[in-house]
Model the fold of this input.
Amino acid sequence: MAKFLVQKSNPLKGEVTISGAKNAVLPIMAATLLTEEKCEIKDVPALRDVDVMCDLLESLGAAVYKDLDANRVEIQAGGDVLCEAPFDLVKMMRASILVLGALIIRSGRAVIHLPGGCAIGKRPVELHLKGLKAMGVEIDEEQLHRGIIDARAEKLKGTTIYLDFPSVGATEVIIMAAALAEGTTVLENAAQEPEIVDLANFLNKMGARIKGAGTDTIKIDGVDSLRGVSHNVIPDRIEAGTFMVGAAMTRGNVLIKNVVPDHLKAVIAKLKECGAYVEMGEDGVRVRGDLNEITATDIKTLPYPGFPTDMQSPFMALLTVAKGPSVVIETVFENRFMHVGEFNRMGANIKTSGNCSIIPGDKKLKGAQVVATDLRAGAAVVLTGLVAEGTTEVSQIYHIDRGYEKFVEKLKALGANIMRVEE
Ligand code: EPZ
Done:
């Protein structure tokens, strides 16, 4: 198994260009099942999850042309589409659930064997199913108790659906199904993430009629068919936030290119509270940690536009070395503090109780053998490795490869002392 060796590094300096958003490209790739025509997707990040989604779409019968050196894929789901998603692919990527709505629309049936929970929580899908059932989908309850979604529907009818929680995946699955349902669907308490807006923009280009994406109420007027289109994926706000935090906590000076500052308001606000200098310019966002002392602040994760849960562990890396104590509250996932144990191996001395962590801060961290417990936590322990004395050895880095394109190369270009070694 490969691992990263990270040494204490100089402050990060230079420029980094952010890749396309993993959490935008995955639902957009799933949405290509909604047309028999060819779709071209550009600014696709070269990530393991993208490879898995390509394999999944191919296994369902789509023609996939992957050119990730050029960050583009072409997908054409012409002809018959199979209805069963292979378990060996679904277990590698929970986001496989995103094909659920499109499969039902396309072939009248979808069979997806759900993987169990993962490091950050049990990841239920009852809201996805609630929405589909409201549109007329029948779910085999027997099979569901065995962890298998077996869903059928001749025709989907638009209706009003209320989401008990603004689930990103449920919002995406329901939008895709409603795009080709009969009549109008109104989705209330919808997720408002920028990735939802990018999916809606892609679908509207295909001929869908979706209004209100990015707000908590989305209205979809079903249409008869959708056409193939070309689309550029939005930049990855979480990758951007990760590099912003790295610049601040290493006391560096980095220009982060290909960013939509609007997508990072909460993260930028918190970085400024910690004393980082953040300036939006023509060619990107400049983050400096070398002008003021980096001090503590408190974080509470919330659905967008609140502070993103995916930035909780990277930001906690900064708080371990910031001056003063911080409180981090995780409200989105029920078990997203697995990285605390890894930070503590380096001397962070964080205390956790329930969904709350207390970070004393002011720590002189020491390199240690640590594990990437999820893809964002993996990036977070790399960041602490940059400021810790000695060497930090990060294992289970396949998590990081799922969500950060060329992570080592981008960090090295900023002066980080990091290398990938095969064990
Ligand atoms: C998406 O996951 C992202 N993944 C996650 O990013 C991200 O952390 C999450 O949204 C929240 O922003 C992709 O987009 C591929 P949710 P998703 O449904 O859709 C609960 C990363 O690091 N819930 O909004 O699975 C659920 O248990 C990944 O890139 C229900 O209770 O997130 C969780 O506690 C990690 N019932 C909360 O809602 C449901 O039916 C948020 O889940 C659905 C969700």
About this structure: The chain is about 35% helix and 25% strand. The pocket of EPZ is lined by residues 22-23, 26, 95, 121, 123-128, 165, 167-170, 191, 309-310, 332-334, 375-376, 403 (CB under 6 Å).
